[in-house]
Amino acid sequence: MAKVILINEIRGDSSTFDEEVELRSEPGADAPVSMERARIEGAIVRETGKWILAAKVAGDVRLDCSRCAEPYDWQLESPIRLEIRSSGPDTREGESELREDEIWHYHAREGKVDLAEVARERVLLDLPLKPLCRDDCRGLCPTCGGNRNLIECDCRSEAVDPRLAPLMEIRKQIDES
User: Fold this and answer.
1) Are residue 73 and residue 116 in the same domain, yes or no?
2) Alpha-carbon gap, residue 67 to 131, rounded angstroms
3) Is the domain of 118 the same as that of 149?
4) Residue 156: which domain range?
5) CB of 3 within 8 A of CB of 115?
6) pLDDT digit string (tens) for 49-93?
7) Pick from 111, 127, 94: which is nearest to 51 by CA?
8) What value, to the nearest 5°, has the Cα angle with vertex 67 and ends 145 and 26?
9) Is pTM beyond 0.85 here?
10) Count of structural domains, the chain
11) Helix count (H) and strand count (E) of the chain?
């Protein structure tokens, strides 16, 4: 069961939380990450008439390296600061994207803040664009497909860009003469 905070039922000016939430995506959805649980801790605080969610999401994320395709664990620890709004985003006819001033807002439907939804969104936003198992990952051999981190292959990579092939022919002719 997802932890939900009802902002209309918060007594006083703040409510703290420290929850382990499930981050499983909907069935059939392509998940770019394998992370079933995360810890979200923080508070919802009233600041100058607005509710602000200030928290931290932490957990281990299972990613595939973009060079060698091996799975590896990546430690996520990410801060969150969102303004909570009770209504949906203001959208004009034909507008499908959020405006820049709405990016750091959480739209609490019916006054409910779903901590699993907040954590899932933060995890997806913080994923590295090019996940690497390590900075010096050598990737896969383009000839034999072997993982260069695990094996030393004797393949020669003399592949020439087809656009430069005519120049290579000219070079060969110059070298022969």
Assistant:
1) yes
2) 8
3) no
4) 138-177
5) yes
6) 788 999 999 998 889 999 999 999 999 999 999 988 875 444 444
7) 111
8) 110
9) no
10) 2
11) 2, 7
